Structures are given as C-alpha cells and as structure tokens.
Amino acid sequence: MNAKQAAGYRAAEWVEDGMIVGLGTGSTAYYAIEKIGQRVAQGLKIKAIATSNASEELAKKYNIPLIRAAEVEHLDLAIDGADEVDANMALTKGGGGALLREKLVAINSERFIVIADHSKMVPHLGNFKLPIEIVPFCYEWAFGQLQRIYNVPIEMRTRDGELYITDNGNYIADASFGVISDPGKLSHELKAMTGVVEHGLFVDIAHTVVVGYEDGRTEVIEKK
Ligand SMILES: O=C[C@H](O)[C@H](O)[C@H](O)COP(=O)(O)O
C-alpha cells in the first residue's frame, strides 16, 4: 500500500449501488478506479463517466459500465486527484492535462471527493505550475496576454518536442505563480480571457479531501 493507493481505495468506499460516478484522471485516480473495478467484479452496480481517454480505457479494462452525459442529469459522486490542495480545499489540477473534463464532472457532482497523497497538501497554491487550457487558433495571442498581465514565467506545454494537445484538442500553458494569494480572484480573471478555455484552479468545488500516507493511513477532511 502506498499513499496514493491508500487515498484512492478509501474514497472508493463512498461508491454505492445505483450511483452515477465520475472517474478522475492520474496516478491517484488510477487506484480509485482499480478499487471500484474490483467492487464491480464483486457485484457493485454503478454507471460512470470518465474524465479522460486514459481513464475511459481503464474503466473498460475493469468492466465499469460507462454512460454518456446525455443519459444523466447529474452525478452522485466524483473522485479525482489533485496536484495541490490548500488549507481551504482549493485545488490546482491539470498536471495530466485533463482539467477541462475534470472540472465539468466535478461541478456537476453532488459530492466531489479529492484524493491526494500527503505531499499535495500545501498552505497556498502556486508552487505547482498552473495549467491553463487555451484554444489552438492564434494561441500566441492568449499566451502573450497571459505573460503581459501576470508577468510570471509561463511556458507552452510540450510532449516529444511538439505542443501538447489535450483530449479536447486544445493546448496547455503552464504558469509559475509562486504563491496564489487569492485563487478565487485569479480563477475568475482567467475564465474571462478570450482564448482561455479552462484553467486548473478548482475553488469551492471539493466537498471532501482524502489524504493518504505511506503507512496506509488516511485522513478525511470535510468542507466546513
Ligand atoms: O490532469 C490531471 C489531473 O488533474 C490529476 O488529477 C492531477 O494531475 C493529479 O495527478 P496524480 O494523481 O497523478 O498526481
């Protein structure tokens, strides 16, 4: 058992028969999906929506029944990882590039459970580079605007020497803010920029955080 596995497995216990569940993305969400898959094999009856092509493949591997958004009005539960979690349960997400689908799923869930190993818990967001998803068309303009407004190091994400492309066909710029003193304000500012599709700040969205430790312990933090 490692810290990510402890958090993922613990969160999977919230899943009950009949639920519609959002499946997160990343190395911590992997364990939640694995555990949910094991429970499905034992008879648990749920339906799920995946937040990335990778998680969809994983769900299929574990025979977790998948549905389309058109078939449901909302989700009962979503479980997903985070890159940083601050003292107010605001998050940075999108290290794996799945922030847009993740946010859509999280805000449409009755309960959003964040799973994180203890290293993700921070006093303030900003040490982890904030992922900002931007449209490919004239992306240099949105990128330039971000640089001019915030005057912090920002780089276009690449993979194998090419610009990284999200599951939605967009690009990602990663911004090093250092300390984000007001995540809510920054979140609204970024959303208002033309060319920006979404960003990785999740403010006032998480209901529960499950923190995992190397010895297999977990700590559950509920929104006040
Ligand atoms: O785009 C990726 C997601 O936001 C992940 O949930 C986040 O990056 C955390 O990933 P991991 O659990 O692999 O650290």
Explain the overall architecture.
The protein is of the alpha/beta class and 224 residues long. The chain is built from six helices and 15 strands. It has helices at residues 3-12, 29-41, 53-61, 99-107, 139-150, 183-191, and strands at residues 20-23, 47-50, 75-81, 84-85, 91-92, 109-117, 130-134, 154-156, 158-159, 162-163, 171-175, 196-199, 201-202, 208-212, 218-222. Helix 1 crosses helix 2 (29-41). The two termini are 29 Å apart. The structure holds ribose-5-phosphate. Ribose-5-phosphate binds at residues 24-29, 80-83, 93-99, 102. It catalyses: aldehydo-D-ribose 5-phosphate = D-ribulose 5-phosphate. Homodimer. InterPro entries: NagB/RpiA_transferase-like, Ribose5P_isomerase_typA_subgr, Ribose5P_isomerase_type_A.
What topology emerges from the helices and strands here?
Elements: H1 3-12, E1 20-23, H2 29-41, E2 47-50, H3 53-61, E3 75-81, E4 84-85, E5 91-92, H4 99-107, E6 109-117, E7 130-134, H5 139-150, E8 154-156, E9 158-159, E10 162-163, E11 171-175, H6 183-191, E12 196-199, E13 201-202, E14 208-212, E15 218-222
Parallel strand pairs: 1-2, 1-3, 3-6, 6-14
Antiparallel strand pairs: 4-5, 5-13, 7-11, 7-12, 8-11, 9-10, 14-15
The structure holds ribose-5-phosphate.
Subunit structure: Homodimer.
InterPro entries: NagB/RpiA_transferase-like, Ribose5P_isomerase_typA_subgr, Ribose5P_isomerase_type_A
Family: Belongs to the ribose 5-phosphate isomerase family.
What's the quick description here?
This protein is of the alpha/beta class and 224 residues long.
